[in-house]
Amino acid sequence: MYFKLPDGLLDKTRVRCTICKAEFRYHRSSSSLAYHLRAKHPNESTSTGPRQSTLQEYGACGRITKNVREKLTNSLVVWIAKNCRPVSIVEDDGLREVIRAASGDECYNLPSRGTIVSRLHTLYGDQTAQQCSKLVQVRNVALTGDHWTSVNNDNYLGVMAHFIDNDWTMQLFALTVSKTEERHYAEACADHFLNVANEWEIKNKVTTLGTDSARNMVAAARLLPFEHMPCMAHILQRTVTVSLNDSAFERALAKCRKIVGHFKHSPANAQELKAQQAAHGHQTEPVVQDVPTRWNSTLEMIKRIQRNKSGLTTILTQQNSKVTMLTDQELDRLQKLEELLEPCRYVTELLGGERCVSCSMVLPALCHLFRIMEPSDDDPVYVLRFKKVFTTDLAQRRDSSNLTWLKIATALDPRFKDLKCLSKDERREVWASVHDLLMAETDAHQPSVQTTQEPSPKKSKMSISLLGSPDSDTEEEEDAIDCCLNLYKAESKIDIGECPLQWWLKREGAHARLAPIARKYLSTPATTVPCERLFSLSGHIIQKKCASLSSDNVNRIVCLSNWLSAKKD
User: Fold this and answer.
1) What domains, with CATH codes, occur in the chain?
2) What's the angle, vertex CA 568, arms to CA 562 and CA 569, rounded to 5?
3) Is 320 left (phi over 0), alpha (psi -120 to 50) or beta?
4) Among candidates 496, 521, 513, 535, which has minimal Cα distance to 406?
């Protein structure tokens, strides 16, 4: 219906039906008009067109519902925990405006800090229960631990659990990031690890404790009822440091550090380097300084200087700087050092994997390094000296590590079970150790004899002789274990690129006795790298944000970040 417009003028006393064009008189009431629609146009009677919204409808238009608001709050909590954001971010006006624009609700307000903290506690409790349920289902758990100091000079101890689940999948997650107040004496460190194991109720399941080679951590491990597994990455990098001290490479490395400092401390010089890189068609990259505690940083410093030597030479020559470019002889020495350090970088990264079996790769990897460091007739004197210092120091550190555990782990990895990295005598000792482990495993699962049973009737001498002596049972068990070991040895070795856990998943039934031992030994990590990554989950965000958080909230947020990120993987 609409008002009639005779000669272009509006007549509010008459209306016309938009459907049949019939005309009606209008007396400020729509009753007759509605009757006409119901009588003549019943199918169209509900289509009365747009109408003005009521006050209640207008207020509800564009507003977030209660359920959506709840989901949004929970999403904010997960985001804060997963990305280690400060709780105070909910007071950020910019974030509020972003959510208002995205939701269309101009009246939306972010939840309070108290609400976020309360939800974080709830989320932490729920996730803790899920992690506990995983630990309940496994027999053996390996621990790694590392200390870390925040920008506020507060010290924290991070501890992670590593295990292989029933599906032969490597699992690892953070147990705690607890603040420590006292000095790091061995007794205090040992107490911290025990408290963590007791809190998670895994003290009787812990097999190994992985730490760096600091004296207090090594001494703490001796006080604990767990096997100690020193971090092989720390050992290797320490050997590199010792080998470089007082070597013929030191002068060239000192010169490299001056060159890097010249460009790192001057934005203008750094900009000139970018221009030279673009002119030579090279990738734009800054030079990097080597840091003793940053693994492989010396190698990276050398590589970048070698890649940008033409640009660096041009700039230093034009500036007539006191910092001089490396000579051809020094560049040649650095090239040889790069060839020596590159295998060390490869082994460090190989052993530092999180979800791959690494403990069994230690001895083959070290054997590979020893072969590379063998003297050659073409080696200059300074290279021979480096190789000698390197192999001597690495051999000493290798012998002081947990060799027994490493050898057994290597034997139970189908990639290295031929034990080519060991001598023949050592191979026999390893298989004898595995044999003893199988015997212990068998004895542990034998049912205990009930002493409360009624005495059995006396047997005749003939029946006793027919039943055989107890020694015959032991001999049969020995034969069964030998058969088990021989069956495993007869299996074909798999390629180094294949996953040993998938191999065990498919053959667990065929090697039922050996599988629990393999699960125990292969779950031990070779390094503490995963634990150290706890404190660098999002670059250095944790270090910057933890300075303003309480120790309990640091523990919750860092652990939640680790747990929630693992779910995504």
Assistant:
1) 2-42 (no CATH), 66-121 (no CATH), 141-236+545-566 (3.30.420), 238-401 (no CATH), 404-523 (no CATH)
2) 90
3) left
4) 521
Name which of 411, 409, 433, 408 is nearest 420 in CA terms: 411
> pTM to 2 decimals?
0.81
DSSP β-bridge partners for residue 3: 15
Rg of the chain over all Cα atoms, to the nearest angstrom: 36
**pLDDT value of residue 404:** 95
- The CA-atom distances, in angstroms, between 219 and each of 149, 210, 214, 225, 400 are 21, 13, 9, 12, 13
Degrees (nearest 5) of the Cα angle 395, 218, 556?
125
For 526-551, the pLDDT digits (tens) are 999 988 888 775 434 455 555 556 77
- As a whole number of angstroms, the distance between CA 131 and CA 567 comes to 12
* DSSP designation for 91: G
Q: Which residues have C-beta within 8 Å of that of residue 503, sequence separation ≥ 6?
A: 414, 494
Closest CA to 391 of 367, 423, 422: 367
Judge contact between 237 and 228, C-beta under 8 A. Answer: no
pLDDT at 213: 87
SS3 of residue 383 by DSSP: helix
List the Cα angle 125/130/134 in 5-degree steps.
140
- pLDDT less than 50: residues of the chain: 1, 45, 47, 55, 58, 448-454, 459, 461-467, 538-541
- Neighbour count for residue 410 (Cβ, 10 Å): 25
CA distances from 154 to 72, 211, 229, 562 (A): 34, 20, 26, 21
Measured CA to CA, the distance from residue 531 to residue 372 in angstroms comes to 30
3-state secondary structure 219-279: HHHHCCCCEEEECHHHHHHHHHHHHHCCCCCHHHHHHHHHHHHHHHCCHHHHHHHHHHHHH
What does the chain come to in residues?
A: 569
Q: What would the 3-class secondary structure string for 298-315 be?
A: HHHHHHHHHHCHHHHHHH
pLDDT at 540: 46
Q: Assign 443 to helix, strand or coil.
A: helix
Q: Is 547 left (phi over 0), alpha (psi -120 to 50) or beta?
A: alpha
Q: Pull the structure tokens for residue 213.
A: 């080679």
8 Å CB contact between 155 and 147: yes
